[in-house]
Amino acid sequence: MRTAVIQASVLLLISSMLSACDEPAQEPASTEEERLEERIEEEVDDLVEEVEEATAKIEEALSELKGHLMDLAEKEKAMREPARLEELEQLLPEEADGLDRIKTDTRGDLIGLGTAEVSATYADDGVEAKVDIVDTGLLAPLARTFASWLDNDIDRESDRGFEQTRPFFTRSAEYPSFESFTRVGDHGECTIMVWVADRYIVALEVAGEGVVLGDCTDVRDELPFRKLERLSRPVDDK
How much of the chain exceeds pLDDT 70, in percent? Predict the structure, then answer.
C-alpha cells in the first residue's frame, strides 16, 4: 500500500513538471515595457528619418523651381526687385468707401521667390471690406495659371448675380479685371480682381446688408494704382 502511494505521488509530480514545461514562461512586466519602449523609439526614429528625407527633397525641388522661374523671368524681361512690404502697406488706405480700417496683415517671402502680400480689413455698420495686394515676384510669368480669368472672356449671369471680365481703365492705364456679384435676400457680396503691371494682383471684396457692385468699384477707385505701377519699375526709372 505504501509503495502504491509513493508511486502515485511520483507520477503526479512528473505530470506537474511536464505541464509546467508546456506552458510558456511569463516575462516580468518590466521587460515587456522595455521592449515596447524600444519598439516605439525605433518607429519614431524611422518616422523622423522619413520626414528629414522628404524635407530635403522639397527644398531641392523648390531650389530647382526658383532657378527655372528666374530663367523664365529673365527671358521675358520680367525680372524686377520685389516690392518691400512697407511700400505695399503704405498703399492701403486708412478708409475704404467710408469704412474704417480695423486690421492690417503682411506676409513676406518665405521660399525665396520674391513674393509679398499685404491686406487690410475695413468694417462699419454691418458691412465689411477686404483689400489684398499681392506681388507675385518670380511667379509672375505663371500668374495666368493661378488667375485663369486673365486668359478667358467670362460673362455669366444668374438670378443671384453675375461674373464678368472687363478692362479697368484709369487715367493713364488699362488693366485686365474680373468682377462678380451675388445676392441672397438683402445680403450682397461683390468681388473685383485687377492685374497690374504684369506683376501685381489687387483683390477686393465687400459684403453685407444692401451691398451692390458699386460698393466694390468705389473701394477700387480709392486705391493708388499709379503708385503701384511705379513700384514695378526699375529703381532708376521711378
Answer: 74
